[in-house]
Each structure stands twice: as structure tokens, then as C-alpha cells.
Write the C-alpha cells for this entry.
Amino acid sequence: MCGILGEWRRGSGTLDARTFEQKLDLMAHRGPDGSGLLAWSPQTGFGAPETSSEPHVLLGHRRLAIIDLSPGGAQPMRSADGLLALTYNGEIYNYLELRQELAERHGRTFRSDSDTEVLLAAWQTWGEATLDRLDGMYAFILVDHGARTLTAARDPFGMKPLHYAVDARGVRLASEIRPLIHGERPLADVSRLFDYLRWGAVDEDGQTLFHGVRQLEPGELMRLDLDSGQLDFRRFWRAPQRRDDTRPAEAWRRDFRDLFMTTVERHLRADVPVVATLSGGLDSSAICGALRLLHPCAPIHVFSYVASGEQSEERWIDLVTAEKRLAVEKIHIHEDQVLEDLPALIRAQEQPFGSGSIYAQYKIFEAIGARGYKVMLDGQGADEVLAGYKSFVAYRIWQLLGEGRLREGAALWSAHARLDPGSRGMVAQRLARLALPGGPALAARRLSGKALQLPFLDQSWLKARGMDPRDAENRQFHQGRSFDEVMRHSLESGVLPSLLRYADRNAMAFSVENRAPFLSRPLVEMIFALPAEALISPDGRTKAVLRDALDGVLPAPIRDRHDKIGFRATEEAWMAAKPEWTRRELAACRDLPFVDGPALTRATERFLGGSQAEGQKLFRLIVFNQWVQAFGVAIA
């Protein structure tokens, strides 16, 4: 896990190494263990910036040393023949297997024990086909002196970020946005402003809320011709079409268990200690159970957020830690801290976020970093790849009804309602939406009280910029109608990209690498080959294959849980508890050009008078305004 930076200057222009290094140091938190620079020029190839003749490319790296802690793992790294140079962020979990294959079949030799050198040797051997062999999370920039190209790529799920900006000066790439706007007054990209304020949506595609700054999408490759400046993009991975495994259930359950255990074991590869998070739910408990099975006698340290009141999962956390003999550190949040820490959280995230729920994660990473740990495993991605969200039940029922399997659809509805009565209404609403075509479905949303408009928005400002809230609504609710379409959407452009951004920025704020075993490419591709009933079983269980295959790994009470609470933000409670702070922050929002001041005042008083309906939207407005202030963003 690191921070990477790359710049190419168009035409006859050259790059200033001192300014470049200042930009790189803005990401020191991503890599406090060292830094490196490398220059490239067409005439002399690679060299140190101070000795390079008129560099046209600069590569930078901030190192968080995890695999091969010696100087041999330092970056940017050059290939053995000197023709390739790489700056890379992430981990290749199958690097030992790739290293063995490269040595035995292709005669490659290695000078270090790092996965970076393996990636370089793989690229020398297989070129872009390397990407189909990698099991890992990564974003990298690679310069090929012989081909005179710069290639950048991001892992299939977007676990590691890579932002870029293209303008008349050239192309700039970075792990974070700060280096790309350094020394400039950034401008907001208002085309998705409504999406954020209404639904909290920011990370659904390559756009960011900074005008002119984009991100490589998950599984995307960029290639830059260093002579002509031509840029090409292609997606090297997309969520696969579902292929139903027709073998007996016991066969694919056995294969799932074996691959899951192998995946967790590979995610433990590090030359520093590895810890885990534990929420008390199915996913994190599966990982912790796998850790204990893999290492029966080793000490295992886990970190758990413990909410107050009805949201508390502490009894489930205690159950897992007792059965699996885990050393747990519990994190509690004090409400007075939340609003005080909000500016720091916004600076860490770099873009606005839709809910205060990420604050608990931020505090967990703070605790992990404070204890000196660098690597953490968590259950991120399991809900998306294993159809864990309750909405998936509605799509599965709809699929069965569409196939004429009416009795099976009705039986699934009844079975799931018995297991999780609290989700009955949500599943029914989603089924009703599926039963209606697009236009009437959206109209029904508004008739049921889900207003499209925002209570503080100046509609004339939107119209003057050609923006229609209905377009935003279509984007948010155009996720497909079939079970398979929604599964792919959830992985590529649903909520997962935002969750991964939150996790990356929260972890890196404290120099911690977060690893997500459920987002291993081989495991995901195997899951997408399973029949739908492996995910949502006829008896109403979600994540059925995980529950069935990990018998003995999961504590039985956890395996049989269907009431996972999940952390829901209480930003409305935070704001209501601090009325002076809330009034002050919302009054400051009146200066935003798209805000209707009197309407905002009325909305503020309704909220502080006890109405919770608009609380989350008002919270997002505060976050947006604090983001504008933190980064000096102009709004046109």
C-alpha cells in the first residue's frame, strides 16, 4: 500500500522535479516508510531527476513497507534490463506462485523478495495479459522505454484508487486528488451535484466532484503514447455473466470452502503483523474463523466498533471472540467527537460522503494505526458478491416469477419473511417497483413520500445549467431488472465503489493497508459461476453458500443469524444534539450559489423542531460546504 504519482509533459515542455516532489509529499500518510523519484526522457531513458536531460515523465512513490522491508523493495523500480519502470500501489497476493512460474518456465531471476519485482517480470513476459493472471488489489503506472508508452491500470474492483487529469500541459496521475489540484483553485463538477445531495452518490463512474479530475474505473487500463500523446482506454475486466454450475451442491460448496481458505491465507502474506476487524456479522466472522483454522495456536488481534443502544452488536462480537480465542479491542464513539472530527474526515476522504456511517470505520483505522499495525483484513464486498443485501431477495423472487416458477417465488417470499420479518416491507416495495415500468415506478416513489426535490435547492440554478433532477433519478434507479443484472451492477457501479473509496482513504489516513478477501478475483469469478440458489436459497437464506460451506469455521449462532443490524449513521441525532452547531453550519451553507436561503432556514427549523425527514439531506449539505471550504473549491 502506497501513494503513487506520475506526470507526462506534452510537446517540448519539461517537468520540474522540485514541484513534483512537493506533490508527492502531499501523500506522505500513504507511505511514511520512504519515497522515491525517477525520471524518463526520450533521449536518455530512465535516470534520477537531477541527472535526467529534460525529463518528459516523472514517476514518484511513497512507500508503506509490507512485503520485503529491505531497500530491495523500494520504488519506482526498474526491470532487470532497464527498459521498464514501475510505481505501484497495492498487493499481488499470488506473487509467490507467479514468481515460481516466471523462474521455472521463463528463466526470470529476481534480486528482491518483493511483489513489485514480480509484477515487472510478469509484464516483461506477458505484457498486458499479465492483468488476467493477477489476484490482488492494485493501481500502477508503468513506463516502457522501448515502446515509448505509459500504461496505467486499476484492479478489477477498484480497491486501489488512481485519479488522473488531462489538459494542454499533459497527463497527471495520482493515488489521491490533492497532488492533481496542487497550486490551483479547483472547480466543482456540478453535473452530479444533485446525485450527491439527494442520494449521496459520488463514485459510480469515472467522474469526481472536482472538474477535470477523473479516476480510472475498476478493471480499466489507460495507455499513453509518449510521442504522440494519444490516450487509449479499455476495460480489461467486467463482472462476468452468471454461469450456473450444474454439479451437485456438495461439490461447489467444497470448492468454495477450499478457495475461500486459500484466499484468506494469501491475504495474510506480509512481513509485518496482520490484524482483522470483527463486527459480529457473517462476513467478518467468516474471516476471523478462517484465521483461527489456518493458525490454531497463534495470537489473533481484532478490532471491533461497538455501537450504543439497540444498534450494539457486542454480544455477537463477544461470542465470536470467545469461541475463536481472539484478542479484541473495542472502539466506542463519543458523540461530542463526531462533529469535531468532521473536517478531518472530509480532508481524508477528499470528496463528500453521503452518510456519517464511515466515521466508525475511520475511528477503527485510527486505533489500528495507533497500535502500530500496518495490515488489516475485513469483510468488505461480501454483500455485493454473495447477494447479501435484502433487495437481492426481491430480484430473486422476480426472477422466479418471470420464469413461471410462481410457487417457488411465493415460497421464497414467505420463507425469507419468516427469517427476517423486518425486511418484509422493503422487499415488497422493491417488487412493486419491478412490477411497474420505469416512468410509473418513479412516479410511485414520489407518491409514496420519496420526494425528488431537495428542500433547500434553488431550482432555477439547476435549470440554468441544463440539469434536470429526473435525469439523476433515472441514473440512480436504472440498475437493471434481473437478478444477474443487479448482481453485476452492485459490483461495478452500485454502492461498492463508494465503500471502497471510504475504506481506502480512512485506512491510509493512518498508514494502514486494508485487505478484502471477498474481493479476490478468482473467488468472485467462482461465485458468479454458482447457481442463484447458492446465494439466496429456497428456504430464504442470503449468502447461503457461505453459511453452508463454512460449517465449523463460522460459529453456529453467527451462521444462523439473519438480523445483522449493520452500522447506520445517526447524523440526525448528532445534529439534533448540537442545535447551535447545526444552525451555524447550515447558515454558512446559504453562501452556496445553488441554495435557496429562506427555504434552507425553514428546513433547518423543521429539522430542529423534531422532523427527521430532511436530516440526512441537510447533513450532506453541511459536508458539501465543508468540502468546498477545505479544498477551496469554486462553484460556477
